[in-house]
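#lab-general

N.A. 3:47 PM
ok so I finally got the sequence cleaned up, no stray characters, all 213 residues accounted for. can someone with queue access submit it? mine expired

B.Y. 3:52 PM
send it over

N.A. 3:53 PM
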Amino acid sequence: MIDRNLVVEYLEPTLWGRLGHVLRILEPVREVAHVLIEEEGYRAFFRGRLYNRKGADIPEGAVGQQMEAQFPEADEIRIYTRDTIAGFFTAVQGREIYDMDIDTYLQFMYETLDARIQILPLRKRRGNLWELLETFGRQDGVYNIGVMQGEALYFQCMLEFRAGKLVRVTTADRYGQDVFDWEKICENVRKEFSTEAVSIMITLEQLQEKYAV
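B.Y. 4:20 PM
back already:
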């Protein structure tokens, strides 16, 4: 779905800087608690805070239950040892991964993590990003996407798909002018990509109503 040679170019800094907000609406970030089990206790990291518990004698079979009680607000808890961390990094950096498309590699990496690391999925967060990319990828072409906030353009990007894969991400910055004028952007996109271009405009409020958790 995402080509391994994906081209990312002409990213207008003001509009592109708002990508994070758009992605948080489409694909809410899972809050993960990372726990490293050591000989005498454990260390953990959650919500920007480091926890260091020395002398905490936790029976092996009760680690998961103990961590769920420690981090009740986490969406997911990952429990590591130094050996499982080393094994995971060795597995996901092998030579065979270099020919994988980006989404295939991400799936492989998470499956490898799941196979080697104890993962406690406490709750699911709805995500829409991958579903949208799969929908766009069913037909070759360029999707010109604009998100408006009131009368102003809040975010804009263009996604180019070939053979079911996302091969290029760009913005109207490629035209060197009219970067914040949605009508002009659509005109420029039609001139460059002709019948392959599909323009989609949505307001930030509509995006939040449709996709926010």
